[in-house]
Amino acid sequence: MTQFNHAVAALGLTQGDPAGIGPDIALLAWVMRREANVPAFVYIGDPAVLAVRARQLGLDANIEESTVANAVKLFETALPVLPIPTGVDVAAGKPHVAHARGTISAIEMAVDLCFKGEIRAVVTNPIAKSVLYEAGFGFPGHTEFLADLSARRTGNPVTPVMMLAGPKLRAVPVTIHIPLKDVPTALSQAAIIETCRIVAHDLQDRFDIEAPRLAVAGLNPHAGEGGSIGKEDDQIIHPAIRHLRDEGIDAFGPLPADTMFHDEARRRYDVAICMYHDQALIPVKALGFDESVNVTLGLPFVRTSPDHGTAFGIAGSGVARADSLIEALRLADRITTRHRAVA
Ligand SMILES: NC(=O)C1=CN([C@@H]2O[C@H](COP(=O)(O)OP(=O)(O)OC[C@H]3O[C@@H](n4cnc5c(N)ncnc54)[C@H](O)[C@@H]3O)[C@@H](O)[C@H]2O)C=CC1
Ligand SMILES: NCC(=O)COP(=O)(O)O
């Protein structure tokens, strides 16, 4: 298990796709560090890209290459960077397959440093999945890549779970980046049970919720309407919930998904377990796009990320907001310092 020194270790922030808004929001988070009480982080990526982006945005940011040990001290006066040169020119808003190597190396370095206890947590800037796929990246996204890096490191299999957490809603998709048409076949009792076990454990362990209440969404309209609008709710989701309740996990449902996200309904649970990506992410982003955070449960270290993507259309324009990234940094800080008041 990671042995980090809370008093001295920084959070590690990966650059993400350098042509996206990762550099913009990292710079903004550093510039806002005092007024927004941003915990110290070390940027893992290309310092030259940061410097060009700072000029483009007219931001007065002092960017300095750093050692990981010196990062917290340096953070007060400069944005500390562990350099990973991209090796090719990067233009804001212009993704290129040649950027992929540096993007991936930054994630690998962050995980390595976290396992060595030299950073407290991994906070990731957004990656463009299609750019990495073009470069031969073999994972749907960070979530599965981080699990693979962890499993290779520890020798133990890791099941990662994606949770989007905001002030009004936490939601978990059981299936993640797969085509909608493949969701019914990908859903299984085992997948729902395993996901819920990890969620219940991590909400207790990392979010200090003593007895987490898991509201499980149905797949079909009206949760299948007694089997007349689809069989999965009765044949897969309901038995999985029964199994979880027998284990002592407070899971209930399947609930019709259209009526489980309004204000009063959300008071009845701590997390919504959803059957597919958009069922979970649409309500989270509709209720709090700027404040919500993507956090990976089930990993042997803490990983958070903003809830948004690379937003190539606004990179380098000064439009990107750093709110979600700042929340991701704060959440990683709270979990790793074990404060009780977490998202
Ligand atoms: N954690 C990650 O690595 C994630 C990566 N992605 C990737 O991002 C790429 C683009 O995805 P999209 O669906 O277009 O979503 P997106 O989140 O990049 O953009 C959606 C809309 O929100 C705006 N937006 C996003 N972040 C913003 C911010 N911080 N401030 C102001 N406006 C903001 C964009 O300008 C755009 O109008 C895709 O390649 C996808 O794979 C998407 C989500 C998460
Ligand atoms: N839509 C959420 C998303 O794409 C984040 O994926 P990941 O890179 O955190 O696995």
Short description:
This protein is of the alpha/beta class and 343 residues long. Helices cover 37% and strands 17% of the residues.
List the helices and strands and how they pair.
Blueprint: E1 10-14, H1 22-31, E2 41-45, H2 47-57, E3 63-65, H3 71-75, E4 79-83, H4 100-115, E5 119-124, H5 129-134, H6 142-154, E6 161-165, E7 170-173, H7 183-186, H8 189-205, E8 213-217, H9 232-246, E9 250-255, H10 263-266, E10 271-274, H11 277-288, E11 293-297, E12 303-306, H12 323-337
Parallel strand pairs: 1-2, 1-5, 2-4, 3-4, 5-12, 7-10, 8-9, 8-10
Antiparallel strand pairs: 6-7, 6-11, 11-12
Bound molecules: 1,4-dihydronicotinamide adenine dinucleotide and ligand LD2JLWAY.
The dominant shape is elongated
Average the pLDDT over all residues and give the rounded result: 95
Strand order of the largest sheet: 3-4-2-1-5-12-11-6-7-10-8-9
From the alpha carbons, calculate the radius of gyration and give it in angstroms: 20 Å
As residue ranges, the low-confidence spans are 1-6, 339-343
Distance between the termini: 24 Å
- Strand-residue fraction? 15-25%
Distinctive features:
about 350 residues; alpha/beta; Isopropylmalate Dehydrogenase; 2 domains; 12 helices; 12 strands; elongated; disordered C terminus; binds 1,4-dihydronicotinamide adenine dinucleotide; binds ligand LD2JLWAY; 4-hydroxythreonine-4-phosphate dehydrogenase; magnesium; 4-hydroxythreonine-4-phosphate dehydrogenase activity; cytoplasm; NADP
Tell me about this structure:
With 343 residues, the protein is an alpha/beta fold. The protein folds into 2 domains: 197 residues, 3-Layer(aba) Sandwich (Isopropylmalate Dehydrogenase), CATH 3.40.718; 138 residues, 3-Layer(aba) Sandwich (Isopropylmalate Dehydrogenase), CATH 3.40.718.10. 37% of the residues lie in helices and 17% in strands. The protein has a 12-stranded mixed beta sheet, with helices on both faces. α3 links the parallel β3 and β4. The N terminus and C terminus are likely disordered. Bound molecules: 1,4-dihydronicotinamide adenine dinucleotide and the ligand NCC(=O)COP(=O)(O)O. The ligand NCC(=O)COP(=O)(O)O binds next to α6.
